[in-house]
Amino acid sequence: MIHHHPDDELLLAYAGGAADEALGLIVATHLAYCPACRAGAAKLDAIGGSLLAGLPPAPLAAGALDAALAKLDQPFERRPRSVSQDGTPGILRSYIGGDLRDVRWRQMGPRLSYVSLFRRGAVSARLLRGTPGADSGAHSHEGQEYTVVLRGGFTDATGNYGPGDLQVMDGGTRHNVVADPGEDCINLAVTTGKLKFESLLQRIAAPLFGF
Amino acid sequence: MAPDALEMNALLGRVALDRDRAAFAALFTHFAPRIKAYLLRLGAPAAVAEDLAQEALLNLWRKAHLFDPAKASAATWLFTIARNLRIDAIRREKRPELDPDDFMPEAGPAADEGLAQAEDETRLRIALKDLPADQIQVVELSFFADKPHSQIAAELGIPLGTVKSRLRLAMARLKRVLGEVE
């Protein structure tokens, strides 16, 4: 059961197309787990469709239809079907290059590991993994941090998060995340600025890992 | 009143099942100029808007078998195609999109949805026309501006909270039209 959802503004940014790739990945990953938000996003798409249908047409160049008809018989590549073996959402598979079980994790401490998916300027998308009881250490954020749980779960002062749940931490807020007992906790995390750790050791180590 | 959404869905069905070129031509004539208008609104240069409108309709031809009238009207489906093409081509970013091959449980039973989606579109278009001007403005900008709400607020010279409350009012009304129980 999913308890933590994107707000209307985030869903609208995704449906309207204003969300950047990293935020889009966060929303799409949540949607893969959440039928209620998929229904909500479909409604926003329908608003987009109605707005499109209501636009005054902009005339095309002469011969545009004939040019399109002439292209109909051109061969095209169909995207090969790729099915996950371990339930990894398809959208993440395209960034990982495989399933979650294929990820080559980089260790950063005894209980935490990560892998970077991509970075655009100050925006980073990563997968994070913690063994049960793993502790992120108290940290705050320069920008926002968006986290979607993929496996297992975690708990902080704001509540408990399980598969599909989305957590949004605004700049300046502080928390300390602990992985729940049971299986390893695996999250997709997008940060729009650096993390600020409170312990001296982590402050020294964070830049080494690109945090 | 523009041609009926049901008629557009029927044309798309003929493209999917019969590879019907006349149906494609009718869809092209109706939608390609509207997709071009959408892209122009978002600031695409005219030549790019023209190419992408062509590309969107070509996508429709190639992917017509994936169209599900239970999930969207033809206009909504084309909107999502055009939106994603624009992000790929103009922002040069990928558009993270749900993978139809994923197993995803559905929220609930979808009775008569095939008809309902096209009817919803007609109802939505009427409801959009009925919105107060300040609400329609922020709804339109959410789809046609490619900007965060904070920037929309700055450009309209109104507080961010006002943008959000106008959107909230508009969305509540539109969702009621779509039969969402609040």
Describe the structure in your own words.
The complex is a heterodimer of chains A (211) and B (182). Chain A has 211 residues and is of the alpha+beta class. Chain A has a domain at 100-209: Jelly Rolls, CATH 2.60.120. Chain A is built from 6 helices and 12 strands. Chain A has helices at residues 8-16, 21-33, 35-53, 64-71, 90-96, 200-205, and strands at residues 106-107, 112-120, 123-130, 139-141, 145-151, 154-156, 159-161, 166-169, 174-175, 178-179, 185-191, 195-197. In chain A, a hairpin with a 4-residue loop joins strand 1 (106-107) and strand 2. The longest helix of chain A has 19 residues, at 35-53. By secondary structure, chain B is mainly alpha-helical. Chain B folds into 2 domains: 5-91, Rna Polymerase Sigma Factor, Chain: A; 131-177, Winged helix-like DNA-binding domain superfamily/Winged helix DNA-binding domain (Arc Repressor Mutant, subunit A, Orthogonal Bundle). Helix content of chain B is 70%, strand content 0%. Chain B has helices at 5-18, 21-41, 46-63, 74-91, 113-130, 133-144, 149-156, 160-177. The interface between A and B is large, with 58 and 80 residues.
